[in-house]
Amino acid sequence: MSTAPQVEDTTFLPPSWEAILAAHARIAPRIHRTPVLTSSSLDAIAGAKLFFKCENLQRTGSFKIRGATNAIFSLSKDEAARGIVTPSSGNHGAAVACAAAWRGVPAYIVVPKNAPKVKVQAIEAYGGKVTFSEPTITSRTEVAARVQAETGAHLVHPYDNDRIIAGQATAAKELLEEVGDLDAVFAPVSGGGLLSGTCLGARGIRTSVRIFGCEPARADDAYRSLATGTLQSLDSSDTIADGLRASLSPRTFAILRKYVDRILLVSEEEIISAARLVWERMKIIIEPSSAVAIAPLLKAGVVPSLNLSNRPDSGVPKLGVIFSGGNVDLSALPWTR
Amino acid sequence: MSTAPQVEDTTFLPPSWEAILAAHARIAPRIHRTPVLTSSSLDAIAGAKLFFKCENLQRTGSFKIRGATNAIFSLSKDEAARGIVTPSSGNHGAAVACAAAWRGVPAYIVVPKNAPKVKVQAIEAYGGKVTFSEPTITSRTEVAARVQAETGAHLVHPYDNDRIIAGQATAAKELLEEVGDLDAVFAPVSGGGLLSGTCLGARGIRTSVRIFGCEPARADDAYRSLATGTLQSLDSSDTIADGLRASLSPRTFAILRKYVDRILLVSEEEIISAARLVWERMKIIIEPSSAVAIAPLLKAGVVPSLNLSNRPDSGVPKLGVIFSGGNVDLSALPWTR
User: Fold this and answer.
1) Whole-angstrom distance, CA of residue B324 vs CA of residue B337
2) Residues whose CB falls within 8 Å of the CB of residue A307, separated by 6 or more in sequence, listed in order
């Protein structure tokens, strides 16, 4: 039996359960405890009992405020004083702008120039200062580094950050606190902050719960990373799921490798039709990135193929779905473009 | 002191608190206990702390399933056997179709021919049989009587019915159970079933709560009825708030006269812009009829003018708003027509 240290496992030790509990206590007074909604018509289509954690109804319109609030309120006064800088495709930027305003410090947000106008306006409405980059990871990182050098602001990465991951974990924690016997949870994956947090938050309440990531086929780096066992990159993507154009980091990859059952891919058409179905049946506004998490479950045969039910009596699995956000340009709906 | 009976007061004695409790127990296993949502950005506009009872997230997409379920499940087996007939501008029809299907009996729905297509499709999706009438109260009543004569079905009026009113009362009851110290509740008014129920359900929990009805200026019969003290009619209306084109009945008028503080009127433009604001900020889909209940509160100076706050310390009133429904044609949004 070898005693050699397993370097890959310990380099990115995930946030502890205690860190998640501390994050929850820190952010709870400022965020919504979002409702868990159900829909009998979507249940009938999926062949499952679905429980939707509605982070689209969260403050700033997405789960991102959880991680941003935890990260920004974890900083010392000195660390926070010269402000926060972050690269963001939109929702994280709005969340950082909002949480920085609560903390009373400036927020510098680096946004790819193809981000939806409505998300840029939201960042500005919360008082964030926007700098545009090219729509590539490389350009975003470079511009963020330049802004950081100029301002002395503290960098809060959208997902490659344990405090962000611990904050995002609180959504799944709340979901499992409300529906304790879920067989599995489905969440969208982009950089992996939400999905990593979902693994940790859900499994902290119920060890046996299975976790699935859902990803646009047009931005399938997480799928390829888990399939090959090697971190794959995605320098640019034009999926309609504008919140899912980032790639995993080594930190999130390490967590997902350990805890995620499988990544499910969906087409652009499946994303759009799932979004419309949710709007119509549930009367809530989800953005395309949220629709990615429900889209696989609406395809004939998918739920049975995953062998999800631990319920020999009824056979119907109980599945959680994280609706990540609801920031959509209402003058250009996905299905009318 | 006269002992003469007061005929006007006793002719339409409202449903008792016991009837409302029984209704709630009867329908609770079948309906959603809808969430009460808040929005700090709408609070800032209104100058109040707002609590939104989201019946747009209710089964069948509106509060109507509460009354319909109570009425249909209160019938004896014999009464229900040959089915249910009702005139409806849409949401009540879908609710009756759904509740009748739960009861296992047919539903005959008489719909004005200018009702939104999406609402007619919803009625049919629940298995309801649709007959069209002219878009007048007179025609609707006539056609419903004819269908009733032909089928022997039991008539369940959309609002001129105590069991319907007792069912609708459960929405405000739940709201006050969740937020016990509201200063006032705002609900849309059409035939007055929801508003009557709101009076009874809210005041059953907190006697001092004030109740306001909200009505399109283009369908202002309730406003005129309360102003004149005489029931006013409205034979036809083209307001975009398609759920609010009916008139009070003697029964609902008697309740509203007794308990409603005031009716607030709003323009078509105010309805549309309130709807859009709620979609954008709250990420929920409300139909124009729901927007009527929030529209007055978004107008500068209205909240202070109502002298609502019993809170000398903070001065900010706590107000409940009933979002009645969320059934909208997503291919023709109110602001893109």
Assistant:
1) 22
2) none
* Pairwise CA distance, residues A52 & A36, whole Å: 5
Highest CATH level, class, for A64-155? alpha beta
A282/B283 Cβ within 8 A: no
Cα–Cα dist A234/A219, whole Å: 7
Please, which residues bridge with residue A318 across strands?
Answer: A49
CA A221, CA A232: separation in Å to the nearest integer?
6
Chain B residue closest to A32 (CA)? B38
Is B237 annotated as catalytic?
A: no
Q: What is the rounded distance in angstroms from the CA atom of residue A88 to the CA atom of residue A107?
A: 12
> Cα B109 to chain center, whole Å?
18
CA distance B220 to chain A (A): 28
Q: What is the rounded distance in angstroms from the CA atom of residue B277 to the CA atom of residue A59? A: 15
Beta bridge partners of A132: A111
Between the CA atoms of B328, B330, B334 and B337, what dihedral angle is there, to the nearest 10 degrees?
-140
Is some CB atom of chain B closer than 8 A to the CB atom of A36?
no
ipTM: 0.91
CA Rg value for chain A: 19
Of B40, B57, B276, the CB nearest to A283: B57
- Residue type (1 letter), A285: I
Residue with tokens 């019946």: B55
Is B64 tagged catalytic? yes
Q: Find all residues with CB under 8 Å of B190, minimum gap 6, and list them.
A: B159, B215, B219, B222, B243, B244, B245, B246, B247, B289
B7-62+162-329 maps to CATH 3.40.50.1100: yes
List Cβ neighbours of A278 (8 Å cut-off, separation of 6 or more).
Answer: A42, A284, A286, A290, A291, A294, A323
Question: In whole angstroms, what separates CA B186 from the centre of its chain?
Answer: 11
Distance of alpha carbon B85 from alpha carbon A157, whole angstroms: 60
3-state secondary structure (DSSP) of residue B260: strand
Partnered with residue B323 across adjacent β-strands are B54
Q: How far B287 CA lies from chain A's nearest CA (Å)?
A: 10
Is domain A7-60+162-336 annotated with CATH 3.40.50.720?
Answer: no
Domain boundaries, chain B: 7-62+162-329, 64-155
Catalytic residue among A49, A64, A173, A318: A64
Report the candidate in B246, B176, B250, B188 with the shortest Cα–Cα distance to residue B213: B188
Nearest C-alpha neighbor of A42 from the set A270, A294, A243, A258: A294
Please compute, for residue B96, the number of CA atoms within 13 A of its CA located in the half-sphere on the CB side. Answer: 32
Count the Cβ atoms, other than its own, within 10 Å of residue A272: 19
- Strand duo A210-216 + A260-266: pairing: parallel
Secondary structure tally for chain A: helices H, strands E:
15, 10
Evaluate whether A7-60+162-336 and A64-155 have a shared fold: yes
Task: Please give chain B's pLDDT, 337 residues, in tens.
Answer: 344 444 445 577 899 999 999 999 999 999 999 999 999 999 999 999 999 999 999 999 999 999 999 999 999 999 999 999 999 878 999 999 999 999 999 999 999 898 888 889 999 999 999 999 998 878 988 999 999 999 999 999 999 999 999 999 999 999 999 999 999 999 999 999 999 999 999 999 999 999 999 999 999 999 999 999 999 988 777 899 988 988 999 999 999 999 999 999 999 999 999 999 999 999 999 999 999 999 999 999 999 999 887 776 667 999 999 999 999 989 888 777 6
Question: Could you say which DSSP state residue B312 is in?
Answer: T
Token pair in block for residue B105: 């009996």
Q: Which two tokens stand for residue B122?
A: 């919803």
- Which of A37, A326, A330 minimises the CB distance to B276? A330
Q: Which of A283, A328, A336, A337 is the best substitution to test chain B (most B C-beta atoms within 10 A)?
A: A283
